[in-house]
Task: structure prediction
Amino acid sequence: MKVKKSLKIVGLVIVAVIFLGTFMFLYSKSKPKVTVYEVIKPEITNLEKTTVVTGKIEPRDEILIKPQISGIIDKLYKEAGQAIKKDEIIARVKVIPEMGQLNAAESSLRVAEINAKQEETNFARTEKLFKDGLISKEEYEKGNVSYKQAIEERNKAQDALDIIREGITKKSASYSNTLIRSTIDGLILDIPIKEGNSVILSNTFNDGTTIATVANMNDLIFRGNIDETEVGRIIEGMPMKLTIGALQNFSFDARLEYIAPKGVEENGAINFEIKAAISVPDTVVIRAGYSANAEIVLQRATNVLALPESTIQFSGDSTFVWVMTDSIPEQKFERREITAGMSDGIRMEIKKGLASDDKVRGAEKMNK
Result:
């Protein structure tokens, strides 16, 4: 009997424990939760709304050096990467004469030599007659002029033949078209030809062969494209900040100086080309073609009251925040309408409705 009674008591205790645990569980579940929020105070700060434009660095002007005659590159005196002065020689072209022109020039020279020889004989006879007093001075001077003209025609024919054969004449060797010279001071960016390559001069049907590309690397620009949604917010003269991928520890000042009047469609979007002049310190070497990002300040507000955008809510035309009215025994907030200004993508300007000592509800912090 005692054993049965003990078992009965134990069973009652177990049932009581289960009942009490169930009651406590249900009570805790039915108890209202208290949500605790982060509290954020507005701060006085500076805001900037920016956009980033991708592009590259390049010289303002790249000069293509082309030959004035056709032929073969006989000698290269320079290579890419070297500095060069105006009129300094880059290469020498060897002329390969066209046979028809060569034959015609040789024939013209032979005729000119025959005429000059005949005029020389005639003038010698005229000169003797004049000395003997048999002809007038006027006839003598006519004979002299004819002789000089024949000599000039012979020299002209000889020069024409020299040009076809060699590309130069003896009288103008220092100005030879066979010597390809730089037209500016600068840096040689590229020499796309080699010794032995054929080159042709520019004409109506051909742009001609580029001997070298020369540029002034002290006058660089940034060239990029900006989307049509932002082009209306920029103007010429705006400051920019450049970062170059190859020079990660440097940033450079630039100033917007050109916005294309016409957009170009690329991958379904309309982009406008922009250019900006770069200010580069003398201690930094920048190479043409470096990729770069340009940050442009589209809008700026200084010394304004601002809040994180995450604390601001929008409903129709209304903008509001939740301002703390009490924190004991629990947080209490009231909805307050505000007037918002510009945003930098993280923080938003508060123009009206808040003071710097107000406390605004932020993100949910914890439950208890």
Q: What stands out?
A: The mean pLDDT is 83. The first strand starts at residue 35 and ends at 40. The two ends are 50 Å apart (CA to CA). Residues 24 and 30 are 10 Å apart (CA to CA).
